[in-house]
Amino acid sequence: MSSTITPSPQTQQHAFVAPRYRPGVDYWQAIKQDYQSQLTEGALTPEREQTYKSMLATQGFEYTTERNSYNRLLLNFSDESIENIRPELVTNLINSLASYEEDAISTLNWMMNLRMEQMQDMFTGFKDQLRICLPDLADKNFGFTVNEHGILEVTSPEGALTDKEINQLNGWLNDLDDFKELTFEHAKLVVHSLKHVPELTKYDGIVTLKNIYKFVDYGLLLQNGGTSPARGFSWVEQLQVQAEKVLEQRQAENKLKK
Q1: pLDDT in tens, 150-187
Q2: CA 159, 163, 168, 170 torsion: positive or negative?
Q3: Could you tell me the superkingdom of the organism this chain comes from (predicted)?
Q4: 54, 89 in Cβ contact below 8 A?
Q5: At what angle do helices 87-133 and 46-56 cross, to 10 degrees?
Protein backbone atom coordinates (compact mmCIF):
# COMPACT_ATOMS: atom_id res chain seq x y z
CA MET A 1 0.00 0.00 0.00
CA SER A 2 1.01 3.61 -0.45
CA SER A 3 0.16 6.79 1.37
CA THR A 4 -0.18 10.41 0.36
CA ILE A 5 0.17 13.13 2.95
CA THR A 6 -0.41 16.84 2.71
CA PRO A 7 2.06 18.30 5.23
CA SER A 8 0.49 20.41 7.96
CA PRO A 9 2.47 23.11 9.77
CA GLN A 10 0.15 22.78 12.77
CA THR A 11 1.56 19.35 13.56
CA GLN A 12 5.19 20.46 13.78
CA GLN A 13 6.90 19.87 17.11
CA HIS A 14 9.00 22.37 19.04
CA ALA A 15 12.26 20.76 17.88
CA PHE A 16 11.17 20.64 14.24
CA VAL A 17 14.13 21.00 11.89
CA ALA A 18 14.07 21.63 8.15
CA PRO A 19 17.33 22.20 6.28
CA ARG A 20 17.68 24.81 3.56
CA TYR A 21 18.22 23.47 0.06
CA ARG A 22 21.71 23.45 -1.45
CA PRO A 23 22.09 22.43 -5.12
CA GLY A 24 23.43 18.91 -5.44
CA VAL A 25 22.89 18.06 -1.76
CA ASP A 26 20.05 15.75 -0.73
CA TYR A 27 17.87 16.13 2.36
CA TRP A 28 19.94 13.95 4.67
CA GLN A 29 23.23 15.49 3.58
CA ALA A 30 21.73 18.91 4.31
CA ILE A 31 20.50 17.72 7.73
CA LYS A 32 23.99 16.42 8.51
CA GLN A 33 25.63 19.69 7.44
CA ASP A 34 23.23 21.72 9.61
CA TYR A 35 23.74 19.40 12.56
CA GLN A 36 27.53 19.55 12.35
CA SER A 37 27.46 23.33 11.90
CA GLN A 38 25.29 23.90 14.96
CA LEU A 39 27.30 21.37 16.95
CA THR A 40 30.51 23.26 16.14
CA GLU A 41 28.90 26.57 17.10
CA GLY A 42 27.57 25.13 20.35
CA ALA A 43 24.04 26.16 19.36
CA LEU A 44 22.35 22.78 19.88
CA THR A 45 19.91 22.15 22.70
CA PRO A 46 19.63 18.50 23.84
CA GLU A 47 16.11 18.33 22.37
CA ARG A 48 17.22 19.69 19.00
CA GLU A 49 20.25 17.42 18.91
CA GLN A 50 18.01 14.41 19.46
CA THR A 51 15.74 15.58 16.65
CA TYR A 52 18.67 15.87 14.25
CA LYS A 53 19.85 12.37 15.16
CA SER A 54 16.34 11.00 14.70
CA MET A 55 16.10 12.58 11.25
CA LEU A 56 19.49 11.25 10.23
CA ALA A 57 18.35 7.78 11.26
CA THR A 58 15.61 7.92 8.60
CA GLN A 59 18.14 8.12 5.75
CA GLY A 60 16.97 5.98 2.86
CA PHE A 61 13.29 6.85 3.32
CA GLU A 62 11.85 6.84 -0.21
CA TYR A 63 9.19 9.27 -1.33
CA THR A 64 7.92 11.16 -4.34
CA THR A 65 6.16 14.51 -4.61
CA GLU A 66 3.19 15.86 -6.53
CA ARG A 67 0.95 18.92 -6.43
CA ASN A 68 -2.78 18.77 -5.89
CA SER A 69 -5.39 20.94 -7.61
CA TYR A 70 -4.76 23.67 -5.02
CA ASN A 71 -1.03 23.68 -5.87
CA ARG A 72 -0.14 22.21 -2.48
CA LEU A 73 2.80 19.83 -2.29
CA LEU A 74 1.95 16.22 -1.48
CA LEU A 75 4.38 13.52 -0.39
CA ASN A 76 3.81 9.95 -1.56
CA PHE A 77 5.44 6.96 0.10
CA SER A 78 4.76 3.29 0.76
CA ASP A 79 3.50 2.02 4.09
CA GLU A 80 6.53 -0.26 4.20
CA SER A 81 8.86 2.74 4.09
CA ILE A 82 7.64 4.00 7.47
CA GLU A 83 7.19 0.70 9.29
CA ASN A 84 10.57 1.08 11.03
CA ILE A 85 10.10 4.77 11.87
CA ARG A 86 8.58 5.69 15.23
CA PRO A 87 4.99 6.96 14.72
CA GLU A 88 5.66 10.20 16.58
CA LEU A 89 8.58 10.90 14.22
CA VAL A 90 6.69 10.29 10.97
CA THR A 91 4.74 13.56 11.00
CA ASN A 92 7.86 15.55 11.88
CA LEU A 93 9.77 13.85 9.06
CA ILE A 94 7.02 14.49 6.49
CA ASN A 95 6.78 18.17 7.39
CA SER A 96 10.55 18.55 7.35
CA LEU A 97 10.83 16.86 3.94
CA ALA A 98 8.00 18.98 2.54
CA SER A 99 9.63 22.17 3.78
CA TYR A 100 12.92 21.08 2.20
CA GLU A 101 11.26 20.24 -1.13
CA GLU A 102 9.38 23.55 -1.24
CA ASP A 103 12.61 25.39 -0.50
CA ALA A 104 14.39 23.38 -3.21
CA ILE A 105 11.81 24.36 -5.84
CA SER A 106 11.81 28.01 -4.78
CA THR A 107 15.61 28.23 -4.60
CA LEU A 108 16.15 26.51 -7.94
CA ASN A 109 13.60 28.72 -9.68
CA TRP A 110 15.20 31.85 -8.27
CA MET A 111 18.73 30.75 -9.19
CA MET A 112 17.75 29.73 -12.72
CA ASN A 113 15.72 32.87 -13.40
CA LEU A 114 18.56 35.08 -12.19
CA ARG A 115 21.06 33.37 -14.47
CA MET A 116 18.66 33.41 -17.40
CA GLU A 117 18.13 37.16 -17.07
CA GLN A 118 21.89 37.71 -17.02
CA MET A 119 22.36 35.39 -19.99
CA GLN A 120 19.68 37.23 -21.97
CA ASP A 121 21.38 40.58 -21.41
CA MET A 122 24.80 39.21 -22.40
CA PHE A 123 23.47 37.40 -25.46
CA THR A 124 21.63 40.50 -26.64
CA GLY A 125 24.90 42.42 -26.34
CA PHE A 126 26.69 39.68 -28.27
CA LYS A 127 24.14 39.81 -31.10
CA ASP A 128 24.36 43.62 -31.23
CA GLN A 129 28.13 43.40 -31.56
CA LEU A 130 27.78 40.69 -34.20
CA ARG A 131 25.48 42.93 -36.26
CA ILE A 132 28.16 45.62 -36.26
CA CYS A 133 31.06 43.32 -37.15
CA LEU A 134 29.35 40.69 -39.30
CA PRO A 135 25.76 41.74 -40.08
CA ASP A 136 25.16 38.88 -42.52
CA LEU A 137 26.09 36.30 -39.91
CA ALA A 138 24.04 37.92 -37.15
CA ASP A 139 20.80 37.36 -39.06
CA LYS A 140 21.48 33.71 -39.83
CA ASN A 141 19.66 30.91 -38.02
CA PHE A 142 21.78 29.45 -35.23
CA GLY A 143 21.55 28.34 -31.64
CA PHE A 144 23.92 26.76 -29.16
CA THR A 145 24.01 24.06 -26.53
CA VAL A 146 26.34 23.34 -23.61
CA ASN A 147 28.15 20.05 -23.04
CA GLU A 148 29.11 18.31 -19.80
CA HIS A 149 32.42 20.19 -19.70
CA GLY A 150 30.80 23.61 -19.97
CA ILE A 151 31.80 24.18 -23.60
CA LEU A 152 29.26 25.94 -25.81
CA GLU A 153 28.56 24.34 -29.18
CA VAL A 154 26.80 26.14 -32.04
CA THR A 155 23.75 24.47 -33.58
CA SER A 156 22.11 25.29 -36.90
CA PRO A 157 19.85 23.72 -39.53
CA GLU A 158 21.88 21.89 -42.16
CA GLY A 159 23.27 24.31 -44.72
CA ALA A 160 22.38 27.46 -42.77
CA LEU A 161 26.00 28.07 -41.74
CA THR A 162 29.31 27.22 -43.34
CA ASP A 163 31.95 25.33 -41.36
CA LYS A 164 33.93 28.56 -41.13
CA GLU A 165 30.95 30.44 -39.69
CA ILE A 166 30.29 27.68 -37.16
CA ASN A 167 33.92 27.76 -36.03
CA GLN A 168 33.81 31.56 -35.77
CA LEU A 169 30.68 31.52 -33.63
CA ASN A 170 32.00 28.70 -31.46
CA GLY A 171 35.16 30.67 -30.81
CA TRP A 172 33.41 33.95 -30.03
CA LEU A 173 30.80 32.41 -27.75
CA ASN A 174 33.36 30.44 -25.78
CA ASP A 175 35.49 33.56 -25.37
CA LEU A 176 32.62 35.08 -23.37
CA ASP A 177 33.77 33.53 -20.09
CA ASP A 178 31.00 34.93 -17.87
CA PHE A 179 28.33 33.97 -20.37
CA LYS A 180 29.73 30.48 -20.77
CA GLU A 181 29.89 30.01 -16.99
CA LEU A 182 26.31 31.21 -16.53
CA THR A 183 25.05 28.81 -19.20
CA PHE A 184 26.85 25.88 -17.61
CA GLU A 185 25.54 26.81 -14.16
CA HIS A 186 22.01 27.01 -15.54
CA ALA A 187 22.34 23.58 -17.16
CA LYS A 188 23.46 22.07 -13.85
CA LEU A 189 20.52 23.68 -12.07
CA VAL A 190 18.15 22.25 -14.68
CA VAL A 191 19.46 18.76 -13.93
CA HIS A 192 19.10 19.36 -10.17
CA SER A 193 15.50 20.54 -10.68
CA LEU A 194 14.53 17.17 -12.13
CA LYS A 195 14.86 15.68 -8.66
CA HIS A 196 12.50 18.19 -7.04
CA VAL A 197 9.95 19.79 -9.40
CA PRO A 198 6.97 17.37 -9.36
CA GLU A 199 6.11 17.98 -13.03
CA LEU A 200 9.67 17.10 -14.10
CA THR A 201 10.77 14.28 -11.81
CA LYS A 202 9.81 11.63 -14.37
CA TYR A 203 12.66 12.91 -16.53
CA ASP A 204 15.28 12.45 -13.79
CA GLY A 205 17.87 10.06 -15.18
CA ILE A 206 16.70 10.60 -18.75
CA VAL A 207 18.18 14.09 -18.88
CA THR A 208 21.66 14.40 -17.39
CA LEU A 209 24.51 16.86 -17.61
CA LYS A 210 26.15 14.51 -20.11
CA ASN A 211 23.26 14.68 -22.56
CA ILE A 212 21.48 17.96 -21.78
CA TYR A 213 22.68 19.29 -25.14
CA LYS A 214 20.11 16.96 -26.73
CA PHE A 215 17.24 18.53 -24.80
CA VAL A 216 17.86 22.27 -24.42
CA ASP A 217 19.09 24.68 -27.09
CA TYR A 218 20.00 27.88 -25.28
CA GLY A 219 20.40 29.86 -28.48
CA LEU A 220 16.90 28.92 -29.56
CA LEU A 221 15.67 29.96 -26.13
CA LEU A 222 17.43 33.33 -25.99
CA GLN A 223 16.61 34.36 -29.56
CA ASN A 224 12.91 33.53 -29.40
CA GLY A 225 11.69 34.91 -26.10
CA GLY A 226 12.19 31.62 -24.31
CA THR A 227 12.74 33.41 -21.03
CA SER A 228 8.97 33.96 -21.04
CA PRO A 229 6.84 30.85 -20.38
CA ALA A 230 4.28 29.33 -22.77
CA ARG A 231 6.02 30.50 -25.94
CA GLY A 232 7.38 27.08 -26.82
CA PHE A 233 11.06 27.91 -26.44
CA SER A 234 11.65 27.91 -22.67
CA TRP A 235 14.04 25.30 -21.31
CA VAL A 236 11.11 23.54 -19.62
CA GLU A 237 9.10 23.29 -22.83
CA GLN A 238 12.09 22.17 -24.89
CA LEU A 239 13.07 19.58 -22.29
CA GLN A 240 9.55 18.18 -21.97
CA VAL A 241 9.10 17.80 -25.72
CA GLN A 242 12.41 16.00 -26.23
CA ALA A 243 12.24 13.91 -23.05
CA GLU A 244 8.71 12.75 -23.90
CA LYS A 245 10.07 11.45 -27.21
CA VAL A 246 12.62 9.39 -25.28
CA LEU A 247 9.92 8.05 -22.96
CA GLU A 248 7.69 7.11 -25.90
CA GLN A 249 10.59 5.35 -27.61
CA ARG A 250 11.38 3.38 -24.46
CA GLN A 251 7.74 2.39 -24.05
CA ALA A 252 7.60 1.22 -27.66
CA GLU A 253 10.78 -0.82 -27.19
CA ASN A 254 9.40 -2.41 -24.03
CA LYS A 255 6.21 -3.43 -25.87
CA LEU A 256 8.28 -5.14 -28.56
CA LYS A 257 10.17 -7.13 -25.92
CA LYS A 258 6.94 -8.56 -24.45
Answers
A1: 999 999 988 899 999 999 999 999 999 999 999 999 99
A2: positive
A3: Bacteria
A4: yes
A5: 70
